[in-house]
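Build the 3D complex.
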Amino acid sequence: MSDAYLSRGVSSTKDDVHRAIEKIDKGEFAGAFCKLIKDPYGSPDWCAAMHADGAGTKSALAYIKYNETGDFSAFSDIAQDSLVMNLDDLLCVGATDGFVMSNTIGRNAHRVDGKAIRSIIEGYETFLTKMKRYGVNITMSGGETADVGDLVSTLIVDSTFFVRMRRSDVVDCGNIVPGDVIVGFASFGKAVYEDKYNSGIGSNGLTAARHLLLSKYYAEKYPETYSPTIDISKVYCGKYRFEDKLPGSEQTVGDAILSPTRTYAPIVREALNSFRSEIHGMVHCTGGGQVKCRNFGNGIHYIKDNLFDVPPLFCAISENGDISQKEMYQVFNMGHRLEMYCSEKTAGELIGIAAKYGVDAKIVGYTEKSGSTLNAVTIKADGKIYEF
Amino acid sequence: MSDAYLSRGVSSTKDDVHRAIEKIDKGEFAGAFCKLIKDPYGSPDWCAAMHADGAGTKSALAYIKYNETGDFSAFSDIAQDSLVMNLDDLLCVGATDGFVMSNTIGRNAHRVDGKAIRSIIEGYETFLTKMKRYGVNITMSGGETADVGDLVSTLIVDSTFFVRMRRSDVVDCGNIVPGDVIVGFASFGKAVYEDKYNSGIGSNGLTAARHLLLSKYYAEKYPETYSPTIDISKVYCGKYRFEDKLPGSEQTVGDAILSPTRTYAPIVREALNSFRSEIHGMVHCTGGGQVKCRNFGNGIHYIKDNLFDVPPLFCAISENGDISQKEMYQVFNMGHRLEMYCSEKTAGELIGIAAKYGVDAKIVGYTEKSGSTLNAVTIKADGKIYEF
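Done.
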């Protein structure tokens, strides 16, 4: 791991955290993408999951955008980021309905006022209303906005989901087998359920993305948006301002980096309704990026040799040179943020479903035996081979 | 409201936040202490709640204690703070079992390492194991530790709870009636399920408590534990260091201010098992302190004329003079953090149950008609009368 990440106080592998929680049991389906527990309400046919995640340091960008332009809309999009980072993880165990969620917003009340909070809450409501139209029901219940200015310099927006589901509906990545194909679903573009073009960024790697893309102008104007523990040479050392055009794209850099995390919920819902038993596993390529799959399956070698062209935003992040191409694949989704594992025949059906929702999908690779009990990942792209 | 609080970036009433969420519906039991929703899994006899809260700025104290002494134990206690702020709110709707919880820890990885995270997780496990012995089952499922050093200067520890319960078991503060007595359960002392003496502090008002109690020494040594938006004259402007003896107490100031939030779960469980239908309402005196009850009931005048003697820690906070005695009652629990509303006869039974667990309880006041549709609170203490 290069220092592009660690020097900024972030570990994409979070080894120390994994050591801290290694004793915690894996739940009812040890191979599943999220931990599932016995039904807390006693039904032997059901299980449940609870899941926490948030928008990460993307909220610092929404804060800058508001201060630069007076436009609150970025706060609404942060709500979607915070939601989808949970929702799409839970999709990967096969849950597509019956979600309950709550949020936790921490703010410095000297810098973030009630209008920003209102915009975030409206962002939650807008997204939930939209998902309901696609048969994905999420009930928002409660939430806490805490004034913790001595901890949080601007604002942090986290969400937690609960879901209860039939055990027979669980998708377990432990069922991924050698010979599966990997269907990748594009993280970029404009789905029929999206209002604007999406750069594909998601909500991972935002610390690296922000500092590698954006110009020192933001360090000088908004010192509250970076940690003083980061060497100043690593802070906002890119060449762009929000309003600059992103090379190779119609978007500005600001719109691209603030693109709200795309959900795949409508697609996954329809895919599972028709092909649940054919889908061996689903992986949400969040922290760990294209190497995330390595955490799942048993003795699987994941070979990805037909990835999407890297979207312009990720190209702009890597052109800075402070992060290696290999590390880019470990931090960012690089073009698809959801993958499904199945037969080639089923793949065609899944790609067809994605097309109905305006989302590109294709076979991006396949699985083999790894030759040991461990998993491995090989990425072949741009004439290079990266082994993980 | 004096500026003791707002000048430090905290609003105990959070008016702007309440305006932001005022449109959100009140749920199935409009008068209940927490929002309850229809059962997401379709049973007409059940309902559910999801609840988020955290340790607030108390985590900055654990961080200081660790850096001063090398002692990790304060991180474990922070886990209890983060848990109990949720658990005891949910007790107040009558839920005492079948909880599922998740945590969200945000940290600056340059300052807070994996050992601290492990200590927090162990704190969660220890507390859950202890509660299980008292018949209060909480399943820990999932959790997220995010490296967000650009947002969080040290660490923030939040938890979210889900619970599903029978509608017939719900305790609804809307049933509080004129003529009830108010039973207060001490926040201080040493319950049979606690390992050490508890100052009674809970996890509210910690921003004020920290800055009013602790000496400028901590401002100079740990600038990462306060917001630069606070005027320096308001930062750590008390006279104490952690190791100083707290006047009127056997505790040090550090042990007192870091006392983990007491839960009342074992007591409430037993009280509800025997007297559920006799308990008209329960209030957890968190944000809003002794005035919190004003948010519940209809046309009720709450008269509190027999409060516990103010515990030494709260006396030390108020002696600074930067916060009025009236405001102290709005920010801190001042001696009891749980109250139950019932007849005088039932009160005697509840006080007896608390005694079995080593927790002082007594009738601290009573209710009358307020004479309008609004609620009011009168506190009579130390020969003074405070009207809210």
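The first helix of chain B runs from residue 3 to 6.
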